[in-house]
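User: I'm preparing a small set of examples for a lab meeting where we compare how different chains pack in three dimensions. I only have the primary sequence for this one, and I'd like the structure in token form so I can line it up with the others. Please keep the answer compact; I'll paste it straight into my notes.
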Amino acid sequence: MPARRTARAGTRAPPSPSTSTAVPAEEIHTTTPGTTPTTSPAAVITSRADVITDAPGRYAKQLLSHLGRKVEFVESPAGTWTAHILGSVARITVGDDVLVLQAEGPDEESVGRIEHALGNHVERFGQRKDLTVSWQRTSTTTPSEV
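Assistant: Understood. Below is the structure token output for the 146-residue chain.
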């Protein structure tokens, strides 16, 4: 259970990126916490966007805070935050001057929803800095290729 945060009236303390947060987006809903989403044995489609910025940690923190109201992101020891959303996976990683966004799912539609949810929010948050998110579909594999 996450620790309760307190803040003065009119202010809101952002969550620390090192803790698990629950994240909202209008287009996505989460699976039941503690369960592993199931996917059909169809192809797995992956997509990646490398967003060049001088403040990748700040944008990751803002994205995790905003989306964390509905979807739980879990941090790995390697520093990647992962959420399982309706059989798809969203990942956020902070690198040196780069914010890496990844989407993985069983079909084009589910990957597109993750791309839209992550990419649209980052572009809105970075509007003053003219941040753009360009997705690259990196692979399509079938179980026989795994």
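A couple of notes for your slides: The longest strand covers residues 44-52. The beta strands are 21-23, 44-52, 71-75, 80-85, 88-95, 98-105, 136-141.

User: Perfect, thanks.
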